[in-house]
Amino acid sequence: MTEPVYRTIVEPFRIHSVEPLRMTTRAQRREALEVASYNLFKVASADVMIDLLTDSGTGAMSRDQWAALQHGDESYAGSPSFTIFRDAVTALFPFRHVIPTHQGRAAERILFSVVGGPGKVVPNNTHFDTTRANVEYTGAEAVDLVIAEGRDPHSDHPFKGNMDVEALDRLLTERGADVPVVFVTITNNSGGGQPVSLENLHAVRGVCDKHGKLLFLDACRFAENAWFIRSREPGQGDRDVADIVREMAGLADGMTMSAKKDPMGNIGGWLALDDDDIASACRDLLILTEGFPTYGGLAGRDLEALAQGLTEAVQHDYLRYRIRSTEYVGRSLQEIGVPVVSPIGGHAVYIDAREMLPHIDPLEYPGQALAAALYEIGGVRTCEIGTVMFGMQPDGTEKPASMDLVRLAIPRRTYTQSHMDYVIEVAHYVVDEAAELRGFRIVDQPRSLRHFSASFAPLG
Ligand code: F0G
Q1: What does pTM read for this prediction?
Q2: Which residues line ligand 1 (CB under 6 A)?
Q3: pLDDT confidence of residue 118
C-alpha cells in the first residue's frame, strides 16, 4: 500500500477555544501608527489583526497544559510542581541544577551577574538583544562569531547558525583568560532563526575543552533546532528528536532558557547547569530578585504547564507541521518577489528589508519602514531586527547593523493557514507600494534596547 503524500499542511490539532480578532481599516491603522510614534511595540494589540511581533509567550496552550495548571501546588517551598518541572527539564537536559526564572532574560541576568563583569568577553554565534544587553550591563563585551554564511541572507548553507570554530579558537587563544563562558544560541534567532548542526556543536565543545572553557546553550528553540538536525544532517534522519536534544545538552555545561518559546509557555524560563559553585551563587541572586529556588519567578501552576509543554514540543507531528508551515509562508513570499532569508528559519520568516527597499539608507531604517507598511496596509505586526535593534553602539555612536531584517515570528499553534494566506496578500500590496515607502528618523530613544520604546518620525 502506498502512503499518499499530501500538499495541505494539516494542523495536528483542532480548535478548542477561540479568541476574537478585531478587523480594522487602513485609516484606523494609520492613526494608530501615528499615536504610537511609528513604534509597533507601542501599538495596542487590539489594533493588530495578525500579530507576528514575536513567537514568545504568544503560543496556544494545549488542553493538557490547561489541565496541568489545575494540578499546580502553590507551596512557597518544596512544591511537588517543582519536582514535576525539574524532571521534565532533566529528561531532555540532564543538568545537575535546574533553577526556574520568570523568563529567559532573568536567567541571563543572574548568570552574567555571576560570571560577567568589566574586562570579560562572552562569545556567542549571535547574541539575542536581551542576552547582549545583559552581558554589556555587567561591563563585559558580547562578541558574535557566527559563520560567514550566517551573515549572508542568500547563502543556502543548511546550518547558518553554526559558530565559526576557527574564530572562536583564535579568540580563546588571544583572550582566553577573559572568557567566562562560550554561548551557542539554538536556533540562532537574530541571524534568521537558523539552526546549529550537531557536528558544529561537537566542534565547539572540542575548542572549549582545548581551552578549558564552559559551554552554555541559549536553548529557547531547541526542539526546532533538533528537528532541523533530524531533517538536514547526514545520518540523523531516523532519530527521535528527544534523543537529539539530549545529545545537544550532553555537549554543554549549562543552558539559559526562555520557556515562552519551544516549551509552549506563556511565561517562564530557567537556568540549568552542572557547576556547583556557579549554581550556588546564582541561587543566591535568584532568591534576591526572583524567588525561592523551587519556584523562581513562577507560580506552581506555570511549572506544571511547562512540564507538559516540554513533552509536546518534541513530538514529531507537531514539529513537522511547525517547520513546514513556517516554510510555507517563506516560500509564498518568495513567489511574490519578497526577498527572504533562506533557508527559511524555524519560528519565523525574515524579510531582507535592505534588499526590498534599496532606496532607503540603513541609517534611515528600511526594516522599520517595511514593518510600518505591513501594519498600516494589513494590520500585520512584525518586528524590525536590524539597525534600530542593533545599530546603537555602547559608546553612543550609531552604525548600520550587518543586516536589516523584518521578522514575521509565528506564534505556536495559534494561527491557521488562512491567516497566513492573508499575511501573504498583505505583503503583496506592500510590494506594489515599495518604491513609495520612506525611511524614518529617531526623535527620542533610551540608552539601551531602544527598539522597545524609541519614537520615530517619517522622513521626506
Ligand atoms: N534568547 C533568545 C534567543 C531569545 O529569542 C529570547 C527572547 C531570549 C533569549 C530572552 O527570553 O524573552 O523570555 O526574556 N526572544 C523573544 C523574541 C523576545 O521575540 O525573539 P525572554
Answers
A1: 0.95
A2: 54, 56, 103-105, 128, 130-131, 185, 189, 218, 220, 258, 260, 269, 409
A3: 97
